Amino acid sequence: MTTAVIVGGGPNGLAAGALLAEAGLRVTLLEAADEVGGGTRSVEAILPGLLHDHCSAIHPMAVGSPVLRHLDLERHGLRWRLPEIDCVHPLDDGTAGVLLRSVEETAAGLGPDGDRYRALTAPSVRRWDALAEDVMGPLLRIPSHPLLLARFGLPTVLPAAALARLFRTPQARALWAGVAAHAYQPLSHPFSSAIGLGILTAGHAAGWAVAEGGSQSIARSLAAVLLAHGGTIHTGVRIRDRREIPPADVTLLDLDPGQVAALYGDRLPARAAAAYRRFRRGPGAFKVDLAVAGGVPWTDERARRAGTVHLGGTFDEVARTERDVTEGRMPERPFVLVGQQYLADPARSVGDVHPVWTYAHVPHGYDGDATEAILRQIERFAPGVRDRIVGRHVTRPADFAAANPNFAGGDVLTGAKTVPQLVLGPRAAVDPYATCVPGVYLCSAATPPGPGAHGMCGAGAAASALRGLGIRAAWASGQERHQGSRT
């Protein structure tokens, strides 16, 4: 029987393993931590029963992921839950940009910017089911729907700051800033619109969903698929030398490129090894989980019903903070993301005490304490919140890295989303998953389409590995049209 080893059990390693096992390979997955999931884990860090997501928390790209749909995770226990309002971006004057599931309802709330917002998003949202496969895969391939992809892709090459000029109102501009800031890049850079437009389109098509029972439910469902197809999972296995990896016909690495170079540097061609070693890391995350009695008392009532709240002020303010953290400066008022997953999944709460998930964008490797800066940003838009906080748990950039080496320096995206790395992955190659070592493939979020719990990086690597073996997969998708060179 053909064999495969997966090193790393994040959502991409799990998705790759499930697809390979489905194709008939005998799959062994090795995970360094005591449980699989990587960023898609959940913890009771403050109070028993009060459930916080460790890293990945809100999943607009995962709920409509082609590979997660193919794997039918609902059969293995996954349930998606949607908040009443997807996202709110409050401003100091008491107004806010509000993102709803419906394009029409969102546009209606944006006043004079409604028509522009509708024109930007609606055509791609209507065809998202057809478009998702092309958007959520490597760019250097023959697309299934070239005209659709071109219509979606043309605005993504623009800097987010340029696209913001479409909008006249501060509310629409701020809403766009908060979504675009998910790229952890200066909003003046080319392609800084790409991740934001992807999130908006996928979110309108499928919602800013959370996983019932925490993001750990995504990992557990993926693991269940792998096990159902005869795969095996071993946790607590940290690979420090490639000789510790069991022999197999194919090996897939859910690791960042630096770890791949450390393991296979003497077998990689010099150019490939150099590319992996100089892979650029992005800014970090500083996370503060809160236990809040009665919930956050947002000034804007709609934020009290929103699964996600973006805190950063106006477009110009968010743009300054994103530039600062990229250049290594800690802003006084950082961009802060707040997750209120319990609104869609009430079982995460304990009575009237609710889990509130927050993190700030900080410079790579930041070793200071951003707790007060985060609390000040929340207090700015929710006066009196400190009186309701009954517990907190802090995760610094170094803590992220210690728990998961893919998150070096607190870089939870596994790499800076610069133009070359966003488009090509860690090295210039037609096949971003092939490592130049025969039978060895990279499947982490360092490869296209990038970070998230969608599993599509794993799907791309699995498709590449199966092509190399001459096996046609049940996962018969646009991945088959990828013109992969394995050298």
Report a brief summary of the structure:
InterPro entries: FAD/NAD-bd_sf (IPR036188). This protein is of the alpha/beta class. The chain has 18 helices and 16 strands.
Global structural class = alpha/beta
- Total count of helical runs of at least 4 residues: 18
Q: Which word captures the global form? A: globular
Estimate the strand proportion.
Answer: 15-25%
Rg is 21 Å
Low-confidence stretches: 477-487
* CATH fold annotation of the largest domain: Polyamine Oxidase, Chain A, domain 2
The percent of residues in helical segments reads: 25-40%
Oligomer description: single chain
The CATH class of the largest domain is identified as Alpha Beta
Distance between the termini: 25 Å
Query: Structurally, how many domains make up the residues?
Result: 2
Second-tier CATH architecture of the largest domain:
Alpha-Beta Complex
Spatial ordering of strands, largest sheet: 7-6-12-13-14-11-15
Number of strands: 16
Tell me about the largest β-sheet. Answer: 7 strands, mixed
Mean pLDDT: 93
Description:
It comes from Streptomyces solicathayae. This is NAD(P)/FAD-dependent oxidoreductase. InterPro entries: FAD/NAD-bd_sf. It holds the Pfam family NAD_binding_8. The chain is α/β, with parallel strands linked by helices and 487 residues long. The protein folds into 2 domains: 213 residues, FAD/NAD(P)-binding domain (3-Layer(bba) Sandwich), CATH 3.50.50.60; 249 residues, Polyamine Oxidase, Chain A, domain 2, CATH 3.90.660. Helix content is 35%, strand content 16%. The strands form 4 sheets. Strands 7-6-12-13-14-11-15 form a 7-stranded mixed beta sheet, sandwiched between helices. A 5-stranded parallel beta sheet has the order 9-2-1-10-16, covered by helices on one side. Strand 1, helix 1 and strand 2 form a beta-alpha-beta unit. Helix 6 runs antiparallel to helix 10 and helix 9 crosses helix 10.
